[in-house]
Each structure stands twice: as structure tokens, then as C-alpha cells.
Amino acid sequence: MLELEGMVALVTGAGGGIGRAICRTLSARGALVAAADNDMELLRGIFEEIKENGRRAAMFFGDVSSRYDVRTMVNSSLRLFGRLDILVNNAGINYTTPVWDSIPDAEWDEVLAVNLKGPYYCICEASVPMRQAKWGRIINIGSIAGKIGGLISGLHYCTSKA
């Protein structure tokens, strides 16, 4: 038996590189994957890949910076699979605006909304069924940019990852 057999994992940012790899790994270990992303083409790709490998999955189009979208992802996962055991907060956004004092306000707000509010909303919503079940795991994906600052990304991204 696979070590995650029957567990349900909600993965945000599921369509991109790291998210896709996380979904593949969880699925290969037996988890039912609820893949969430705001890019429908990428989302369909990982969903189809999991299904082609004979595993169950669901896909949810949404924006983690919207509490409504996050609540919908969590509630839909619960309706489809009956439980939620693992949350992987992987969704993130990055702009590489090089000069800290030239970051447009809208760009700053968007990066912090996705990278800070998004995981917060996901934790708030996913922790409810996990607490009810008295079991769950929440994994937050960070970045080395949060430790070394603006050497590789813009100030807003580094701030949100610190």
C-alpha cells in the first residue's frame, strides 16, 4: 500500500513547475490530488497527467488572493473527496522589478496578496476540516529570496517570502 493512499491533498499553484512536481509525487504515493491554479491550461495539463496514470484528481480554477475562491476550492474538495488531509501552499507570483523604489503600487499589492494573503486564506479555510478530523498537514513553500533579499528578485517578492 502507498503511504498516502486515500488521503486528499489540495495543492495551490499546481500547474507550474514546482506545483506540478508536488502533484505528481503526491499522486504517485497514493494521494487524491485537488489541483488548484489560476492558469487553466497548466491546470488541465497536470489534471490529465494524473488521470492518465490511473489516479484520481480534481482541478479547481481560482485565485488564492480571493478568500471566496479559496473557500470554494476547499469546500469543493470536501464535497468531491469527503476529506482534506494535506494543504500545500505553493502558489506564488514574482516580478523582478530591479529598483525597490520603482515598484508600482499595484504590483506590490498583487505580490503580497498572492504570496501572503493567499497562504493565510488557504490555512484559515483548510484548517477547519483538519481540526474537525483532528489530523492534517499544511506545507508552505518558501523561497531562498526571503533569506538573501534582493539578490535574485524584487523587494516585494523577497519581503513576501521572508
Walkthrough of the structure:
It is a single chain. The chain has a 5-stranded parallel beta sheet with strand order 3-2-1-4-5, with helices on both faces. The chain has 6 helices and 5 strands; from the N terminus they run E-H-E-H-E-H-E-H-E-H-H. 49% of the residues lie in helices and 15% in strands. The chain has 162 residues and is α/β, with parallel strands linked by helices.
Structural class: alpha/beta
- With strands numbered from the N-terminus, the spatial order across the biggest sheet is 3-2-1-4-5
Tally of helical segments: 6
End-to-end CA span = 38 Å
Helices and strands, in order, run as: EHEHEHEHEHH
- Kindly state the number of beta strands: 5
Strand content: 5-15%
Q: Radius of gyration, Cα only, in angstroms?
A: 16 Å
Task: Itemize the secondary structure elements and their pairings.
Elements: E1 8-12, H1 17-28, E2 32-37, H2 40-52, E3 57-61, H3 67-81, E4 86-89, H4 105-133, E5 137-140, H5 145-148, H6 155-161
Parallel strand pairs: 1-2, 1-4, 2-3, 4-5
Quick summary of this structure?
The chain is of the alpha/beta class and 162 residues long. The protein has six helices and five strands. The chain has helices at 17-28, 40-52, 67-81, 105-133, 145-148, 155-161, and strands at 8-12, 32-37, 57-61, 86-89, 137-140.
